[in-house]
Amino acid sequence: MAIERTFSILKPDVTRRNLTGAVNALIEKAGLRIIAQKRVLITKGQAETFYAVHRERPFFGELVESMISGPVVVQVLEGEGAIQKYREVLGATDPSKADPGTIRKEFALSIGENSAHGSDAPETATIEIAQWFSGNELVG
Ligand code: UDP
Ligand code: MG
Predict the structure, then answer these.
(1) Cβ within 8 Å of residue 119, ≥6 positions away
(2) Do the beta carbons of residue 126 and residue 4 sit within 8 Å?
């Protein structure tokens, strides 16, 4: 399998509870390399753009509010099959359905505050990385 890059966000429920390092430990244990990382406060507009695909869903407003409720950590992860692998490390969107040992099973508070985001396909990974990082910030 090819070396890929995927985009990750550690959500405000993680930074609020001082769990950035604990989540990063699971990422690194899975063989994914954090090749870029920064802690940022995102604006409402940025959150709405980022999750625009969900604009019509009933949870959209709550999702945006939760993403701007505190700092997030945006990251680029690199590794063999990184996009699919990180989705596995994340676990199911609903933490009650996530496998043991996954980020969401171990840390998520609810389906909304589910600790982390990971790109779902190569196309979205490319778009999401470009939204948050310039080329010089990726140090593979
Ligand atoms: N979400 C929610 N309620 C739902 C489904 C999703 O609050 O019923 C939130 C949750 O934070 C999730 C995000 O919206 O991570 C994006 O949803 P998606 O279906 O893309 O899940 P993901 O790709 O993050 O697993
Ligand atoms: Mg998604």
Answers:
(1) 6, 7, 8, 83, 86, 125, 128, 129
(2) no
- Going by pLDDT thresholds of 50, 70 and 90, the confidence category of residue 1 is confident
In 3D, which of 33, 35, 36, 130 has the Cα closest to residue 86? 33
In this structure, what DSSP letter does residue 21 have? H
Residues annotated as part of the active site? 117
* Residue 59 beta carbon below 6 angstroms from any ligand 1 atom: yes
Ion ligand 2 neighbours (CB, 5 A) are 120
- CB-based burial, 44-81: b 16+ in 10 Å, e otherwise: eebbbebbeeeeeeeebeebbebbbeebbbbbbbbbeb
Could you report the per-residue pLDDT of 53-89, keeping only the tens digit for each? 999 999 999 999 999 999 999 999 999 999 999 999 9
Which residues 6+ apart lie within 8 Å of 51 measured at CB?
60, 63, 64, 67
Q: What pTM was computed for the model?
A: 0.98
Q: Mean of the per-residue pLDDT values for the chain?
A: 98
Environment class of residue 109 by beta-carbon count within 10 Å: exposed (0-12), middle (13-18) or buried (19+)? middle
